[in-house]
Design brief:
- Helices cover about 0% and strands about 50% of the residues.
- The chain is mostly beta strands.
- It has one domain.
- It has a six-stranded antiparallel beta sheet, with no helix packed on it.
- Strand 8 and strand 9 form a beta hairpin.
């Protein structure tokens, strides 16, 4: 499992992380969020900041080469009260962001994903292989390029990583 490090004050993981795909029908991977991927943002009054609900990205794909108007990613944020990572399907469809909550998991647990893209049925499927769990998200593939690139770890929304974070992907 390769470890991607997002340094404090950054959005992107270390290194050059760029890889193309063409006519992709499946994306299988394992991911592990370290305990240092837990965080909590407080506003100036010491209250829970709305940026805690932004979805950080672990891994996924973008269709097309020069934008992320059409993309699928698996992402996370934190439930700081119980120390769990909340996992999401995070999608841009024609530039419109939508997401679906998937599950909560402890830090340092390897999660095994099988994602599939059914262009003919306009559907993205997300299956968790290490524990039972299957999810479907509608996605209109009409006119969407078959060529694109893989997405690698990214922290944010609009805030940068508050401290060093380690994400494993295989």
């Amino acid at each position: 499992m390769k470890t991607y490090t997002i340094k404090q004050g950054n959005h992107y993981a270390n290194g050059l992380n760029f890889k193309l795909h063409n006519n992709l029908h499946q994306l299988n991977f394992k991911a592990k969020l370290s305990s240092n991927c837990l965080y909590q943002f407080l506003d100036i009054n010491g209250e829970h900041d709305a940026d805690n609900f932004d979805i950080n990205k672990v891994h996924g794909v973008t269709w097309g080469l020069f934008n992320d108007n059409d993309s699928f990613r698996t992402g996370w944020n934190c439930s700081v009260n119980n120390g769990l990572h909340q996992w999401f399907a995070y999608i841009h469809e024609r530039g419109v962001m939508k997401y679906q909550f998937l599950f909560e998991e402890e830090p340092n647990v390897e999660v095994n994903f099988n994602n599939w893209f059914l262009r003919s049925n306009n559907l993205i499927g997300i299956e968790r292989l290490d524990k039972s769990g299957s999810y479907e998200v509608p996605f209109n593939f009409e006119g969407v390029s078959e060529m694109g690139y893989y997405n690698f770890p990214y922290f944010g929304g609009n805030k940068v990583a508050p401290h060093l974070m380690n994400i494993g992907i295989e």
